[in-house]
Every structure is written in C-alpha cells, then in structure tokens.
User: Which sequence fits this backbone?
C-alpha cells in the first residue's frame, strides 16, 4: 500500500514541475536559441535569399510578364532531419508576393506537387462532366526557371564551446540555356555549450 502512494506522490510532484504551454509570437520571439535550425533561421534565410534574388534582377523578365519558376531538389546535408519544404515554401511565398514570379505545381523532381493538375485532365471525354469546364490540352505552362540548392552543416570547436555553421546555398537556373542566373549562400552560425546538441 505504501509503494503506490509513494509513486502517486512522485508523479504529482513531477506534474507540478512541468511548464505550462504558451503561445509564441514568431514575429517577436526572443526566446531561447537552440543549436539546431529552427523556424527563425528558416524565416531569416528565406528573406535574405529572396531579397538577394530580387535585387540581382535575375527574375526580371525583359519581355514583360512573370517567369514561371519550378522548385527542383533542395538537399539536406545536415545532421538534422529537416523538411526542406519549410524553407522552400517561405521562399515561394515571398517570390509570389513580389509579383515578379509565379510558381508551377504541375511538375517537380518527384512528380507534380499538386497531382490534381494532371488528374483534372483525365475528365476529358467523360460523359459525367460538362466538357466546357474541363481543362483543355496545351494549357499548362512550362517552367522558365528552376530553383535548386543544398543546406550544409559544419560543427567546429571554438575554445570551450562549439560552433555550428549552417550554409543555405541556392541556385536559380534558366531552363532554356542551363545557365545559372543567380546563386547565393546564406549563413546561420551559432555558438554555445559543448553539451548542446545540434540535431
């Protein structure tokens, strides 16, 4: 009888020590920094990359209108299990908001990002659908530009601390010529205790 009471008391004590969940405002978050990449790092890397791309003039179409951009592969070469789409989505959103580029979801390295692009075209010649509203042949727009890149991580000892360096490397390629129109590298460097983990 005494052992269950001790266990129950221990659990109650641990529960009392737990912190209460709270909201964090991403725009004003000056909370603890981890050695791993977090949403603030993705936000800053995306913003700096897009600013660099727009300032370079690489996405200014000399014929007027907007280029069609496709996202190629962004390789994760870090010790973390990163979803590179988090970075890519922020870049795409900022580029779309700039009004200088549109992105396609009809093609991608691993197939269409939005499979409905092709699936909706299987409705042609179906007696169940009003053919006036079905997508016609030859309406999908091929991409002009491709965005590819890599996220690298390097760990170094600095005195009694460790320094974790992340490099977000991006390239914008003209698909007609295969030439890189723009390339940039954004660095995220963190220094902290050797006891901190970066994965």
Assistant:
């Amino acid at each position: 009888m005494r052992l269950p009471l001790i266990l129950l008391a221990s659990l109650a004590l641990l529960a009392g020590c737990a912190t209460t969940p709270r909201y964090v405002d991403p725009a004003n978050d000056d909370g603890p920094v981890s050695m791993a990449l977090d949403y603030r790092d993705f936000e800053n890397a995306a913003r700096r990359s897009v600013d660099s791309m727009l300032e370079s003039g690489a996405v200014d179409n000399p014929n007027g209108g907007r280029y069609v951009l496709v996202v190629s592969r962004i390789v994760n070469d870090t010790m973390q299990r990163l979803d590179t789409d988090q970075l890519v989505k922020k870049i795409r959103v900022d580029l779309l908001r700039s009004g200088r580029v549109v992105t396609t979801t009809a093609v991608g390295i691993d197939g269409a990002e939005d499979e409905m692009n092709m699936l909706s075209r299987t409705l042609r010649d179906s007696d169940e659908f009003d053919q006036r509203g079905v997508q016609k042949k030859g309406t999908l727009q091929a991409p002009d530009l491709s965005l590819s890149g890599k996220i690298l991580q390097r760990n170094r000892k600095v005195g009694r601390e460790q320094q974790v360096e992340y490099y977000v490397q991006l390239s914008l390629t003209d698909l007609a010529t295969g030439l890189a129109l723009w390339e940039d590298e954004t660095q995220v460097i963190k220094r902290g205790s050797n006891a901190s983990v970066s994965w």
In short: Strands lie at 67-77, 101-103, 145-158, 161-174, 179-193. The radius of gyration is 24 Å.
